[in-house]
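Exercise 7.
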Amino acid sequence: MSDKLHFDFETRATVDLKKTGVYRYAEHPLTDVICMSWRIGDNGPIHRWRPGDEDPIEFLAHIESGGRVVAHNAGFERTIYNTVLRGRVVPHWPELKIEQQDCTMARGLALALPASLDQLGKALKTPMQKDKDGHRLMMQMCKPRRTDADGTVVWWEDDDRISRLQLYCDQDVETETDVDRSISALSDEERKVWELDQRINDRGVMIDVSSVSRCLAVVEEAIKRADDRMWWLTDGEVKKCSEAAKIVKWLNGRGIPCASVAKGEVEEIVLMTTIMGDDTAEEVIRLRRAAAKTSTAKFKAMLNSVCSDGRVRGTLAYHGAATGRWAGRIMQPQNFLRFDAEELPDVMLIIELLALEKAVKEIVDAIEMVIGPALESVAKCMRAMLIAAPGKKFVSGDFSNIEGRGAAWIADEQWKLEAFRAFDRGEGHDLYNLSYARSFGIDVNTMPKKSFMRQIGKVQELALGYQGSVGAYITMAAGYGIKPRDVADTARAATPEEEWHRVSMGYSDDDSRGLDQYCWTGVKCVVNAWRAAHPNIVQAWWDSQDAAIAAVGTPGLKVPVLQGRVIYLAANGFLYCRLPSGRVISYAMPRLVRQLVTPAKKAYDAPGIGGEIVHHPAREAVYKYAVEFDATNSYTKRWEAHTLYGGLQFNNVVQGLARDKLVASMFRLEAAGYPLVLTVHDENVSEVDEAFGSEAEYQAIMAAPDDWCPDMPTAVGAWEDKRYVK
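Solution. The predicted structure, written as tokens, is:
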């Protein structure tokens, strides 16, 4: 059957879909389908069906024949169809299979377009778009009107509302049809990736329900104590770590400017308190951060979403990032805190404490006495709450520094490639030591294995590869407890006098990141030294930026870059970037814009090193062209304009490359009998019988070379355990 079937459900339940995820939502006995709208073909009439109506014969025949079925967020529709309808209402209906589905949300995400049907329709300017009034009605009818004293659930189901809801459902099918016509299909290769994503989500992963429940109680007790500490530190101005507005007001009152303590702002505030030497304010913001990171939300999410068989499903979001990498849903495993190998005994000790029949306060006391702050300690246990089923084990592999290796390979930074190869042979130096040594021209053999210079090198590697500068460096450094003055002191000793003097002349209050001239100069020298040691990577930024500008300026022209491994092309309202694997990432609605590079400033005098007066002449305004594109803001979730620049492009290429390496390994693992239950960043996690497979085999499968990058140095660390620990 060549025509597609388009369909959409409206459902109702006594549980919250956002909290439970679709799998727990669908298996709840009171979850029901209110109505369904469907059509065969893009221009066919829209039909309606409600539970109790006669079977929609043409609809069922299409599904039974294996015909293509289109839906937005197709996994939701399939789960509702198979679990609610086939499971309880109309068990004689044929199964809807993953292989026959076509997901317009997945196709839109692959083009870096919005996920929601409403926003996607607006971005594509489709004729039919979401009905806001209908959406409000749906939000009302999807929840109970009331629950009577005897437990009877009363729904909103009068004829007028149902009629309007059915019309809303019809309009969703129209919008979905318009979207289907407006965006390209997934490539055959990406189609297979999406199908694998659906199978992994269907499998789910088991959680230790008992330990999660105890963790939740421990966190709640620890938050009470953190709240008491917050009250004491702020002299009663802030009573709870959750009182964001009051924390902002208190910080402002101490001369620490900030408008928010949201996730994206906290690290900057931590840095400011460190620079200012305000220990009390630093503890306040760290308490806020710890409480937010270890909020009860993740543990509650695990319990809210766990299905009757003890497994949490639907944790992966296909193409959650524009590069193709996955994002997390529900308990969001991508955001689980990692812990070092030396911290594993602490994690296992906490799990042992949770199993004891002791009061929660006693467990918190024990954790704080033996390990440290309970909030931070328990947060590291989130990963360990995932367990293998009885008779099973986890086998996992993680690509080692795949982004650093990918960046060196794609930019042809030969010295670094050789360094990775030497390290993999067991002959090379620690990369962080090597980064610092290469930056400042010193003999790496003279450096101790663990030193502050290595810490500087570590932050260099983590913060600077994608055109990061002083701001990126000090923000990353703050996360490791590294102070800018200590960095500056070390850089001062390693930097020639003339270079230090030259760099210091670039200091400006407008771009100081809150640093004084000495600290800024030191950090800037560290940045400059890393860039000097990586000329090919730096050149890759500029070449990538020029290639994008050339492609957007000349639609239809293929512009190769990075040794021809990457090609940019502007066409059909997108800027396409073809990766070495052949996969394409996209930027929507690209256009050239004229940007001010150097603002004109009045001439002024400024003190230089040693106190001499240095004259800075007036600077003329300089303009350049840049590429602007539309994308979803990761913080506000709004569809808005963004500027494309070389470092971002290089980041996207490297992350896209890493994703393609990961995906290739996923298919090899599946073929070898290692079914995946999770993928987190650059890590694969499979659940297999206890007697099956090995770390060595898993490692070899993942590390196998790919034909599009056979010479890229690749290393994988593997492990196996009954818990998700590493």
